[in-house]
Fold this protein.
Amino acid sequence: MGLFQTITSGTIGKDQLLTLLQNLYPREDPKTIHELATLYLSEVDKSNQGYIDEDQFVAWMRTLPQHMLTSAMHFPIIPSNIALLKDSQPSFPPAAVDFKDRSGLDDKQLLRVAVEMSLKHRDWKLLANNLGLLEKDCSCLERKRLDVKSQILATLQIWLKTCREAPLPLLQAALRHSGNTDICNVVFSLNF
């Protein structure tokens, strides 16, 4: 199955499972992650070999109710409502552009998102992907910008420049979907 092959190199042991779960649930404490990994491994590894292979994973997936399987497997890699960048070399907007007229989103908020994400060592490429930027765009930003905060800010400015819809709700959704709900709540003063 493609999903299993994407996340593993043939098998997944407890250490790999722990790393995967830590990345999926960054706010959970290590004890909870360890319990989750142990539970999942015991549920899927029916032959007690200490790792999960593709056949075991597929057999386990087949035990799930159809509606759960459909829900779990339906995830767009690039959101359909986001315009993709066409050029392999993104064009950087001028540094002094003021975006205040774009549905309440302004440069200060973009900068605050960039600062919070860099301070908390968050995966800015996951946010970029949720905003519709491609890996080649991220690589270009890494070459042109040395520090992470500048890379994140440039990502947000490029996205905003190409955004065809109301950017504020799109950015908030992208932050939530990339595991940055706390940053979204702080920057935009949200209480959920």
Observations:
- The two ends are 36 Å apart (CA to CA).
- The CA atoms of residues 103 and 166 lie 6 Å apart.
- The chain has eleven helices and two strands.
